[in-house]
Every structure is written in C-alpha cells, then in structure tokens.
Amino acid sequence: MKFAFGMFAGVLLCAAPLFCQTDPVVKEGQLDWFRLTESRTDVAKQLGLPKMVAAFGADFESWQYQLGEVEEEGFSHQLVFRKSTGELISIARNYATERTVDEWFPAGETVAYFYPASEKPEYSVRVRKLSGDRLLLAMGISKPGQVTGQVFMIRASELQAFYPWLAIQLTAVKR
Amino acid sequence: MFLRSIQRTLVATLAFTASLYAQASPNVRILLPERTRLLEGQLVDLVLEVRNARNVTNLSVTAGSVDITSKFSAPAAATLDCNTAPAVVVRANLQSFAAGTVDLKVTMQADGATVTDSRSILVRPFAITPNRNIILFIGDALGTAYRDAARLVSRSIVDDKGKSSFRDGFFDDLLEMDKMPVSGMSMTYGTDSIVPDSANTGTAWATGNKSFLNAVNVFGDGTDCAWRFTGLQNAATQPTILDNPRVENLWQYMKRRFGYRTGIVTTAAVTDATPAVEGAYTGFRQTRLEIARQYRENPMLNGRPAFDVILGGGADPFVASGRPDGRNLIGEFQNLGYRYVTNATALKTVTFARGLIGLFKGSANPAPASNGIATADVNMDVAYDKLGFQRPASEPLPNFGAYTDQPMLDLMTQKAIDVLSGAHTLFVSPQPFILMVEAASIDKQSHPNQAAGQVWDTIELDKAVGVARSWAAKRPTKDTLIVVTGDHDQSMSIIGVSNTPDADYFDRTKTQKISLTTPVGDQGFTVYGDSFANARAALPFINASTDASNNTGVAGTPGVFKPTSVVADPAASTYSTYFGSPAYKMDAKSGYPLNSGAGTRRLAVGYRTGDHTGSSVPVTAEGPGALLFTGYMDQTDIFFKMATAISTDTTDIDKMVDTLVNSAGRFPTSVGK
After folding, report:
1. pLDDT at residue B349 above 60?
2. What is the distance between the alpha carbons of residues B78 and B52, in angstroms, rounded to a whole number?
3. Distance from CA of B189 to the nearest CA of A (A)
4. What residue ranges in B188-258 does DSSP mark as E strands?
5. For the whole model, what pTM was predicted?
6. Under DSSP, is residue B295 helix (H, G, I), strand (E, B) or coil?
7. Cα-to-chain-centroid distance, residue B631
8. Are residues A67 and A117 in contact, defined by beta-carbon separation less than 8 angstroms?
9. Which residue of chain A is at minimal alpha-carbon distance from B225?
10. Which of B7, B398, B598, B609 is exposed most, by the fewest CB atoms within 10 A?
11. Do A62 and B229 touch (CB under 8 A)?
C-alpha cells in the first residue's frame, strides 16, 4: 500500500525548487544530484531532517526519510554516513511506484551487470560511472525502458563492503 | 611552534588510531540476546561471530555440563560490520535444550589468543496437556483508542424509536473482546527501538524473544550492516538477509513436536509481517518470495508445509509468474491435498479439507518486482468497502479489481476453525490446533489516517472474535484459549464527536485549501468536509478564527477548523470535544453500523503522526489459562503464557476466573459485560 506519509515534509521541500533535490535531475546534459561530498548539514539543508537516524555496523550512521509517496512503513531515501568522519557513502532513492530512469542512464555511459552471471541471471543492475568516485545504480533492471523501484548512488571505493558481488564484477571488467 | 605542536599531536593521534585498528584483539560473541528465553526443545540457531581473527582452533562449546562442540560446523571466513577486519563465523543450526537454566560457554583459540563468551538461557519446561487449542487474534495496531473507537461506533446504535444503546455514559452491550474475562497490558518495545513494527513485535509473541525492526523470528548479526540501513535489501544479491540466527515460533514448535494443526488468517497479504511470524524466518519482512517458499517447505519442519490453513490476500508470491524461480506454490499445495479457493462463495462451500489455502486478492498480472525481494503487497480490501458503504470525501474509493467477492474476517475465521478442528468429520479425536487471526488494515488504514476504513475493520475483527468465542463456548470441554491483543499501538486518538451532515461528509467536490508559508516555501493542503470527524496528521487542524473560545480558550492551538465557505447552517459542520455522544444506525442486513443517514453523529478521531507508537496495548483472554494474561506484561510473555496454557494444569486458576464471572452478584460486573 502506498500513501503520502511525510506529505508535510515532501510538500514543504518540493515547494521550493532550489532546495528540492529529492531526485536526480538532468541540467544541460549533466546529471545533478548528490556529489557524495555533502556533509550532514548539507543533506539536512537539502532533504530536511530525517525521520530516523540509526547507528549500525562498526562505524556507520543511516538517515532515513519518508518524503512524498512511500511504501507502507518504507523509506523514500536512505543515506549512509561514516559516523566518525561524516563522509556520505551512499544514498538509496526508493519509489513506491516503479518508474523508468533512462534519462539518468544514457546508453553510452551505462553497463548492465548480472548476478550471479549473465547466463541465467537472478538479478540485474544498470550501472553508470560518474565523476568523483561515484556509481549510480538502477536496481533490478538491465535494459532501457524497464521500470525500477530503486536508484542507488554509492562511492565506488565503498562498494566492496556493501555490495561485494558487483564490486567483484566491476573489478573484473577493469582488468 | 604552535603549528608544529598541533602537527605532532595529529600525527601521534593518527598513529595511535591506526595501531588500535591494526592490533584490535580477537573476540567472540554468541549471537543470542542477554535475556534469551526458550521452551524445552524449541529450536534456535547458535551462531558465534569471531572478530579480528582469521583462524579458529580448539573450539569448545558447553551447555551446562554437556559438550555440544560437535554440533558446530567448520569455521567460515566472513565480512562483519562492513569493514575489512578479518572475521570468522561458526554455526550450529537448529539446536535445542532441556528445561532449566542453561549456561552456554564458548572457548576457542582465535589467531592464537584464547577468547571466550557465555550466555545464560532460561529454558522453560513444556509437557503437553492433551487437546487444548489456541486462537490468537491480532489487531494490527489495536491500541486502547482503537478498541474504544470500535466500541463507540458499533455500540452507539440508535433504534427506530430513538433509543441509543449508549446512554448516560454506559453501553448496553460491550464488544466481544471486552466481554472476555481477563485483561492485561503488553509492552511492545523492540531490541533497537521503543516504537516497533509488526515484524519484531510478532517475533516477540511468536517466539518469546525480542528482535530488531523488520526481523521475522531471527536475531541480529554482524552481516546486517550491508543491507539493514542502506536500502540494498534484495535477497537475491544480499544472501546475508537470510543468515541471521533463527528461533522457532510456537506454530512450528507445536506442529513439529506434537502434531498440532496450524493456521493463519489475515486481511493482509498472507506474506505480510504478522502472518509471516507464524511460518517464516528472515531478517527482512519484505522478502515475500522467500516467506511464501518457507510456508510451503518450512525449515523447522524438514520441508513440510508450515500451515494446514492459509487464508488472506497476496496471491502473487505463490504463482509461477510472480516468482523468479517459476515455482507454482499453489499447485504444490494442491498436490499435497490442499483445497484452493479464491472467493467468498467458494470458501462458504468448504467444510472439511486436509488443508486449505484461500488467496482472495492478487495482482492482475503478477510479475517479480525489480527489487528482487517481493511481488506486489496486495492486501484484501477493507471491511468498509466490502460492506459497500460510501467512503468519506477524503478517503479513497474502493478498488476491488477482479476480486469482487472477498470474504469477511468472521467467515474466514469460522472456516479456518472448521477445517483445523476437523468439524463436519467423523474424526473421533481430531488433533488440536493453533490459529492466528489478524485484522491487518486497522494499521494499514491508520497510516494514511483513513478513519472509516480503520474503525470498521476493528468492528470486523470483533465479529471474528465473536465467532471464536461462540465456537469455544459450544465445545463439550473448555479446551480453547482465546487471546486478543494488538501487536503495537498507532497514533489515532478519540477527540470527540462530529455532526457533519452527509452532504458535507461525502462531497468530494467541496474542498477548502489550507496554505502555510514557511521559510523554505509554501505548503498547500486540501481539506474535505469530513475533516471534522477525521483530523489528519499532516494537516494542521487549526483554528482559522481569532476567536479563542473555539479552542477552549487558547487561540491558534489545534482545535476547531472553521470553514470559510458559507454553509446553510453554521452550526452543522462542527466538532465537539466536550459535549455529545456518537449516534449510528444499524444496517440490519450486514449487522454493521451505518456511517450515513439522518441523525448520524460521528465519532471524531485525530492522528498525530499516522505511524506506530511506543504505547502499550491491551490483551484480553478467555478459556483455559486465561488468568495468566492478567496484569502488565512484556510482549514476549504472551508466547510463554500461551505455551503454559497448553502445557500446564490450569484448573485452579480457571476456577478463580469462573468464580469471578459467575459469582451471582457476589462480585461486581461491568455494565454491558
């Protein structure tokens, strides 16, 4: 079930376009979203205060938001910071209604990866490498035109710890 | 000089930090909570996490005086806490203990260093009392205000002569759940938060142990960090979602050890969190494909099905097109002798079945969701819509799709009891059963603040409770414990009554806008005429006037919303905190109160957050062992109290309850009870 939980914050933020960066946008051909260099304060300015903050793992902190339409008891945005340094490591953008994301994944810059392998894949991800050690992932899809419920951005250098199978495949491709 | 000093300090600090990290000592942890409680023979995974070590040797694990080292498999390298420090995991799956206090002690050599850990587990005895049944009713979010709302709506009935069944503050007749003789309160805190969800609260009453948000019958572990808070929650590529230590629930325990028949009935998708805790084990409640698979081949039952009866919504994870593995789980159940029904008409024809699976709602074209973990979350439609009542202006219109013949919860409950108890058969000694019945949309309607949907679902639950009470009362022996509780509370509270006329309450065209200017932009909200009966969390229910008397003396605080449009009778659409009682007419055909018609005076409710709360929830009980449920308790106690009711001679405490209930005036009785 979907509902506009957090409508208050969503309306509040999206009413001010300058501050509304809940989703990636394409400006003059360039993807504009998080740089993963943002501090906690920068994120709070951009998305407002999170609904939930949770410490986890050895040194991580998660900020969870419910902005706009979200799944029941789900989150629209999930950000991970390294607790000790405040570095922003990743951001998941979850969509209650699945959507196409082709505009953020131009064909020439996007490669599909398959788990466990391209033969009989159980899962697929479209990956775009961005500047600044960033990877943009469209989860669960392999081709343009397909719809997804999640877009994920992560520092490439942190991928091994959080999503090892993809890190291994990316490394193999590099070689 | 000063700068050089700072530099030196910085270098020294960094070097110290690096050396700490490099030289972190090996340690071992038993992944059981400090207050682990089990039943004799209840299965649990014993998992040891060894940090800062690559090699583990000389493992020794004792449970009291018993050496259980041989139960553990070979150590396996692991990544824990999402860091690069070496780590090892050692497992002994599905272990159990004899009754008593079990001191679990672990010793090993980790990279040459001796490391140890210990836990004390309280294991309660369990010796079956023959042929006792349990029916557990879970109102999802059934806090005290929710029970009160159902009572105030369904028991404030005005008859043709104008006489109300709620007069002078007394009800002629209380709810079915109110009439149960024993009451208590249950605290619902999880291991990681005071405001829980349906998964970890379900884990508490289903297994007797607490866990973390979204966990289904498992404890936390060191591999959770990769998925739990990142959003990377797909089981296909994150198998560690399914590696958490499992603890057996009462449904599998009773079936595995004593041949109990087991069932779940819900108005949600049957793979939703509350039904899942009776039949599955996973770190994340949304792994519905896996939950459905475990219903068919349960890990505690050597691959046998978890249930004899499954009734609810959410067909998608059971059909081949809804699963990446292409398995047709419904067909597999049918091959095992289960009868499959998809609508109320077919359900009514069921009398006896070896097993029964009824899935009354699904997607038109089920397809595996792109997140790899779940197909659509297709819950059954709410009672209010099934009854064909008109929704208030701000609530969504019904959307039955192809599923227009869905059963009410009382019919589902009756059929589940019939099949589980072996009614309509010549069985001389049918097996006893344990059944969970959930009214799921009390919570699901409360999240988006849909009062009509929510209140009528609570009334629907109460009618199902009535079915069970009536069935149990007719039994030749008093052999069925009935428990009614909520898994957690929600934010609705009763704020008064509203006399909004139907013309305003149902009119979807008559709207007003509320605008607020904030430092970062303007907000706009649409308010419908039903706002007097349903104050939303996100909508400021403000006093738009400067007349402080509208807000009992304080201007600008939440209170009366004063419409700007001209109405024929200015006093018509108002809301009263301090004066008046609800008044509803009864729909003779359905037996439910109508929410429309001349003279209707509606209950007014408000939602502060539209989310769960950390408040305790009421518990009521009837039948053998009911007195165990008196007083304030932890939610995990419900598990042990249910187990005790079917494993202990409760004659003495049952007599006390009988004496209180049937005292012929010696002890006072509540009006309407």
Report:
1. yes
2. 11
3. 16
4. none
5. 0.92
6. helix
7. 21
8. no
9. A57
10. B598
11. yes
CB contact at 8 A, B213 and A51 = no
Whole-angstrom CA distances from B489 to B212, B419, B541, B563, B642 are 17, 32, 22, 32, 21
Sequence length of chain A is 175
Contact B316, B363 (CB under 8 A): yes
Task: Tell me if A54 and B229 make a contact (CB, 8 A cut-off).
Answer: yes
CB-based contact A3 B521, cutoff 8 Å? no
Q: What percent of chain B has pLDDT over 70?
A: 88
Q: Identify the CA nearest to B591 among candidates B173, B181, B167, B264.
A: B173
DSSP string, B137-168: EEETT--HHHHHHHHHHHT-BB-TTS-BSEET
- As a whole number of angstroms, the distance between CA B398 and CA A25 comes to 35
First to last CA, chain A: 44
Tell me whether A113 touches chain B (CB under 8 Å).
no
- pLDDT, residue B616, reads 98
Does the CB of A25 have a partner CB in chain B at under 8 Å?
no
Q: Which of residues 69-88 of A touch B (CB under 8 A)?
A: 71-73, 75, 78, 80
Distance CA B375, CA B327 (A): 14
pLDDT band at B669 (very low <50, low <70, confident <90, very high): confident
* Residue that is written with structure tokens 């899935």 in the block: B359
Q: Phi and psi dihedrals of B592, rounded to 5?
A: -110, 150
> In this model, does residue A16 exceed pLDDT 50?
no
- The two beta strands, A123-130 and A110-115, are antiparallel
Q: Does A114 touch chain B (CB under 8 A)?
A: no
Residue B557 in this model has a pLDDT that exceeds 80: no
Mean pLDDT of B577-586: 92
Terminal alpha carbon distance of chain B: 84
Per-residue burial over B9-31, b = 16 or more CB atoms within 10 Å of its CB, e = otherwise: eeeeeeeeeeeeeeeeebebbbb
A123–B521 CB contact, under 8 Å: no
What does the block give as tokens for B457? 């679902």
B7 forms beta bridges with: none
- Name the strand (E) or helix (H) holding A52: strand A52-56
Between CA B458 and CA B464 the distance in angstroms is 10
Residue B144 is which amino acid?
A: T
Inter-residue contact B373 to B282 (CB < 8 Å): no
Total H helices, total E strands in chain A: 4, 12
Coil, helix or strand for B259?
Answer: coil
